[in-house]
Amino acid sequence: MTAELHLYNTLTRRLEPFTSLEAGHARIYTCGPTIYDYSHIGNFRTFLFEDILRRVLRLFGYRVTQVMNLTDVDDKTIRGASQAGLSLREYTDRYAAAFFEDLDTLRVERAEHYPRATDHIPGMVELVRRLGQAGRTYRSEGSVYYRIATFPGYGKLSGVRPDANLAGARVDVDEYEKEDARDFVLWKAAKPGEPAWETELGCGRPGWHLECSAMSMETLGESLDIHCGGVDNIFPHHENEIAQSEGATGRPFARFWLHAEHLLVEGEKMAKSLGNFFTLRDLLERGYDPLAIRYLLISVPYRQKLNFTFDGLHAATQALERITNTLRRLAHSPASAGVGALAPEQVAAFRERFRAALADDLNTARALAELHDLLRAANTALDGGGISGTVRDDLEQAIAEVDAALGVVPTAAPAATNGDAEVAGLVEERTAARAARDFARADAIRARLAELGVAIEDTPHGTVWHRKSQ
User: Considering the entire predicted model, what is its pTM?
Assistant: First the structure.
C-alpha cells in the first residue's frame, strides 16, 4: 500500500497529510535568490530541498506548478550595481544567468515560472492599492508602510508578537531582527541615484516583502498550496508576506509553509570572515564532482541542520561510486538462467520502503539508506546465483524511480567503446591465461591494464572492466 505524503507545516507546527486545493495539482511558491552575487552552498541546500519536494510530489501523482522569484531590486542589488557602475538590469542579468547555470550543474529541475521583481511593478502597485482600501497602510515622507496593528494574525507563523510600545514605529530596511518587529515598508520613496518607477504611489520602488506577495498571487492565485524557503525567511519575510496577502484578500495565503534549516561548514556558521564561505563555483574549481555536492546537500533531512564537511563530501563521492559500480555490474553481467538470487518481492518491498521514507516529510536520509540496502542485496545476488531478466527489469524501474525522486543516480560508464580494442583484447587474453592456470601471465596483464587506467572485476559471470575515474 502506497504511503500518504506528510509534510511538516511551520504554520501549524505539526506534521500533516498533504492535500492540494485543486485535486491532483500542487501549486508551490519558493523564495528564490537575490541576484546580486553567486549563490552559496547554503542557498543551494534550500533550493535542493525544494527540488526534492517537487520531484516527490510528482512521484505521488501530482501535477506541479512551481514559481521561484528572482529578486532583482532590493538594497543589495542596488548597492552592487552602483559599485560596479552598471545599470540594475545589466548587473543582475549576469547573476541570473550564473544561477541558472548552477541549477543545471546540480541537476535541479527548472520551475515552471521565474518572475523577476522588476517585471511585475504594476502588480505590486495594485496590491498596495488594495491594502490601502482595506485601511492597512499609511504614508510617511513619500513611502507607504504596512500598519501591522491592523492585522491581528501578525506573528502566527514566526511566533513574533510586536511590542505594543512600538506602535507606529517603522523599519525601512529589507532584513531585520525579531526584536525590531514594527510597521514595514511596502513602497519606498525614490532616493537619489537609485532606480525608481513613476506610479500612482509616487516615484519609488517596492519593498522586498511586497515583491513575493504580488508575484506569487499573480502567478498562482490568492491561495496556494505550499510556500517554501529557508528558516531565515520565516521572520520577517514570510510573516510580512502573510500580512500583506491575507490583509488584501481576506483569504488564507498558503496552506503549508516548509522551511529548510541552516547549513554549517565544519561545524560553524558559514562566513567570509571565517574563511569557510563557499559558492558552488568555489567547490567546482577545487575539482569536486557536482553530483557528490548534490548528494551531500540532500543527504540530511531538510528540517535538520546540515554540517558540510570535506570528509562528508568525500563520503558522498564514495557513495556515488558504490552506486556506479553496482549499475556497471548489472549492465555487464548476464541474466541468470533460473529464478536467480534476488526475488521480485525484495525489489517491490524496497519501492514501498523508499516511498514511505519520502512520504515521511521528505526523509532523504532514510530513502538513501534504503537505496544502499537494495544495492547490497543486488551485489550479493550477483556474487551468487545471479539476477533473472525479470527482476533486472524490476531493478531498472526501481533505480529510475530513485533518480526521478532524488536525482543522484550516476550514469554508469560503458564497459567498452570503439577505441577500447586493446583493452578488450587484453581482457580476453587474461581470461584465457586464467583458464590455462597461467596466473603469472594473468597478473602481468592485470598490471598492464592498471597502467592503462583500467580496473577489472572477476565475477561468476565473467570479467567486467571499466576505466577508472581521474
Answer: 0.91
